[in-house]
Design brief:
With about 190 residues, the protein is of the alpha+beta class. It has a domain of about 110 residues: Aminopeptidase. It contains 5 helices and 7 strands, in the order E-H-H-H-E-E-E-H-E-H-E-E. It has a 7-stranded mixed sheet with strand order 1-2-3-4-5-7-6, with helices on both faces. Helix 1 packs across helix 3. The longest helix is centred in the middle third of the chain and has 15 residues. The chain is globular and about 35 Å long. The two termini are about 35 Å apart. The N terminus and C terminus are likely disordered.
């Protein structure tokens, strides 16, 4: 395991059924083919707002335009990318705000992987960037994701009517936010030496 990988669940199978060989780490340029495969899965695409048939070159281009206000994580299992999550910190008058985007491999939905990815992003948001507001937009029919976000402290702000076009029809989306910037782990302040 490298220093960029985390695996807090060292048992063979975690209590929620998630395999212990899941590692969460920063995305790397060589991950473009695996990320593209993930994004082109039918369930992943349906639950996010992605168009079908994304190419590896498009993925590479998007990955290369990230900067210091962007964190992108992947979850891997046996070298396969099975989840991805990102956090973008805004600038200027909205530098206290971040936006989350995420998705999980079709075969790994419902086993805690989304919670682990989101927890990793919230660690960055709270303990490193001190973000006050974290926001996201989710398809209104993605009840599983909405439930995850609620469990992680997000609240519904409103419905965005006809927000996206998917599968031949307009669909609504839900705007959600989480307010608060208290550190969630570690100690506040430093011990005097």
């Amino acid at each position: 395991m490298t220093k960029n990988q985390t695996n807090d669940d060292a048992s063979e199978v975690t209590e929620n059924g998630l395999a212990a060989d899941i590692f969460i780490r920063a995305v790397e340029p060589e991950d473009a083919p695996g990320v593209t495969t993930l994004m082109n899965l039918p369930g992943y695409r349906w639950g996010t707002m992605r168009l079908p048939y994304q190419s590896v070159s498009t993925t590479r281009q998007k990955m290369s335009t990230s900067g210091p206000n962007f964190v992108c994580l992947v979850a891997t299992s046996k070298e396969e990318i099975v989840g991805m999550a990102s956090l973008t910190r805004f600038e200027g008058g909205r530098s206290h705000v971040g936006a989350v985007g995420m998705g999980v491999h079709d075969a790994y939905v419902g086993n805690g992987l989304g919670s682990r990815l989101l927890t990793s992003l919230l660690d960055v948001a709270d303990d490193w960037w001190a973000l006050r507001r974290i926001e996201l937009t989710v398809n209104a029919d993605n009840e599983r994701a909405i439930g995850l976000y609620k469990r992680m402290g997000f609240e519904r702000e409103g419905v965005l009517r006809d927000y996206a076009f998917r599968g031949g029809a307009f669909i609504d989306a839900v705007s959600m936010e989480r307010l608060g910037n208290a550190p969630r782990s570690g100690q506040i302040g430093r011990a005097h030496v």
